[in-house]
């Protein structure tokens, strides 16, 4: 499919340029030029996807709910982080603790697909970067991204335990035209500078971001006892990709965050001048080597991930912050090592495809409870997986996937078999209908085993099934994607208070059930050469019940709507994008400002998220470009989690880029 499309595009280019020059047929040239533009438009709306089945297929031939975000899409959107890019996609309702997905020690921001917390696997070029059941995109600068593939629904058969809700694969740039870009941006809250360079076999990036203080960072109602604020913080970023050959590549991303966050005490709604100051030194490294021989369907990945969090805290008195000292509650050293190798074969006259792979994962964690007490351990997971796609007729094919895994755990070994079946029926050359059913399984975070204070008892793996069916339609100028899904999990991993009378500490535990049923719609329209529009809608019913005798309660938002418009005229590109998250779950606090779960008060639901952004890019020439971004134009106190932390208020940034 890919080769035929490339051939079509090449033929259009040859006919549209060489033939008119040789024979002078202007009308023929115009017709061929129009055919070329139509082919290109269709190609953009039906991109190649490699994540869903571990082999390259067009989106129309992929039997799963998918979204593909290109580097051009990212640039037009004005998103400052990969997190911001992903949270604007259909079916994604992220959980963040700070603006742009910023994290504060144990308050770990993560990507959530279809409402399932801790159920999304994030890959970089096929190499996993999850640590302790959390995913993070902090180390991937948007300038280094070639495209992002998002696959919704359980993908555990091919990708393992953490792909319960879906998979996000961030594919980075590996080289290209020799070019170096110097960039500087300044706004009313943030500043940044960066240097990026590409060559035939490499891409490199280094940058630094500065975050201004913000006095308020959470919602509060009188007489709430505390209010959070952010202080001047920084983040250093480095990324390198080297490709000695077209099959072998090496990537390294490094992030060093220095984040300040303060909790101010309140009395009768007024600040008292007292509180606690927190500082988080957060260092991450993601290193991978990828050998990918597409012609022989062979791929091998070796990946190492490391995160080190060293928090400190101090006392605030009389509006003055005292000296900081070690804070052990969120002090972590986390590591993972992954080796994954697969081989594929084309069978039955290239109609069928067989993939067989081996996977090894070793996780290590060390977490502190005090200056002298800490827990540490490791976990090893061995897996054999296979996938066989059989074409029953030119219009119908089915894929059977299977993963057998054994977990050699710190405390409790596990052996599981995870099946998956997918079918695809080509309704026409422009439309397909798919079914995707899979079983998922996930171990609890490694460090819960040595937290001996957990009185809730043993924490078991969560597991369950995901069912979905959908239709994709790709025309010359527009595409439609619609799916319905149902997710059903047992022993859901969640945070639970040990003693209903004492709400000071929550522990990772198993709750009885978790379910979600919903529908998703994604529509893209290329109106003309200058104007492009896209819309997305998700309606769902995520709910959980903690005990067998309890009733189901809402767990995440029920409604998400996204919209975007791109307009280009000459050297100017403009983008307007909107995100609405509504019908949300209950806040952690009641109308009296106390924890409703603690005190039995009347719960209230979280306010809607209304995020409207605009971005303008002016490319003066081949060397100079300017970008002006307006974020949260409506200046909403945008609540981003159940603890009512806010995103940024209205903020803007002007960026100048010089390339040579």
Summed over residues and divided by their number, the pLDDT gives a mean of 85
Helix content: under 10%
Count of discrete alpha- or pi-helical segments spanning 4 or more residues: 6
Characterize the largest beta sheet: strand count, sense, and whether it forms a barrel: 22 strands, antiparallel, barrel
Q: Classify the secondary structure makeup into a structural class.
A: mainly beta
Uncertain segments are 1-43
Q: Which range does the strand content fall in?
A: over 45%
Rounded radius of gyration (Å) = 25 Å
Shape, per Cα inertia axes: globular
Explain this structure to me?
- Strand 9 and strand 10 (202-211) form a beta hairpin.
- This protein has 660 residues and is mainly beta.
- The longest helix has 22 residues, at 2-23.
- 41% of the residues are buried.
- The strands form four sheets. The chain has a 22-stranded antiparallel beta barrel.
- The chain contains six helices and 35 strands.
